[in-house]
Amino acid sequence: MKKWICTVCGYTHYGEDAPENCPQCGASKSEFYQDEKRKGCLFGFLSVMIMLATPLLSIFGCKTPVTVDNSTVSTLDLNRYLGKWYEIARFDHKFERNMMQCTATYVLQDNGTIKVTNQGIKNGKWKTSVGKAKITEIPGLLRVSFFGPFYSDYRVMMLAPDYSYALVGGSNDNYLWILSRTPKLDQSTRNEILHAANARGYKTDNLIWIEHKDN
Questions:
Q1: What is the pTM of this model?
Q2: Buried/exposed 84-106: b ≥16 CB within 10 Å, e otherwise
Q3: What structural domains and CATH numbers belong to the chain?
């Protein structure tokens, strides 16, 4: 029996052929590869980053130079950061493409890791991905994985004093999320976050604003 792995979320399928769509993330059959023999820069290094709220698994190709200021906050109270976040905006990337009402929930485990549960609606159906995060010695920097041993940066770059919103980035300028404890942010707060992101070199015109149904 053959082993097929989804390059988007890491889901493993056993059978003579890959499934038409990944049952975990909805990726098409073409996103699967057989066995675990892909090597080299041609296929890239797969790593998934949350959101949020997800945040959110990240997919890395060959090493990309950092062209933005993605430095993290100087302090982070993990206990206050845990819990549910709503994704307000994000840069487009494969793992969350065409998903709305995205949230991420972080729960501290007994072994010291953080359980990451990302949810969202795609094609009218709820999709859920569960990963884990590791705490690092750098305040505001977590290492997140949704795919085996591969981890990616989760960088808290801006945080409200009351932990009501956050600006999160990755290891390069391809990833950016605006998160909130509530489904909506007022325009003045949005402008403040956008100003900070622009000052760091991010192209905020590329942000996708996420729809949430009113509670």
A1: 0.71
A2: ebbbbbbbebebbeebebbbbbb
A3: 3-34 (2.20.28.10), 45-209 (2.40.128.20)
Could you tell me which residues come within 8 angstroms of residue 66 by beta carbon, excluding any fewer than 6 positions away? 171, 172, 173
Residue written as token pair 């982070």: 76
- Which tokens is 31 given? 């996103």
* C-alpha to C-alpha distance for 28 and 97, rounded to whole angstroms: 12
Q: Per-residue confidence of the chain (215 residues) as pLDDT tens digits?
A: 778 776 656 667 788 888 887 776 566 676 667 755 443 333 333 333 333 434 444 433 344 567 899 999 999 999 999 999 999 999 998 889 899 999 999 999 999 999 999 999 999 999 999 999 999 999 999 999 987 778 899 999 999 999 999 999 998 899 999 999 999 999 999 999 999 999 999 999 999 999 887 54
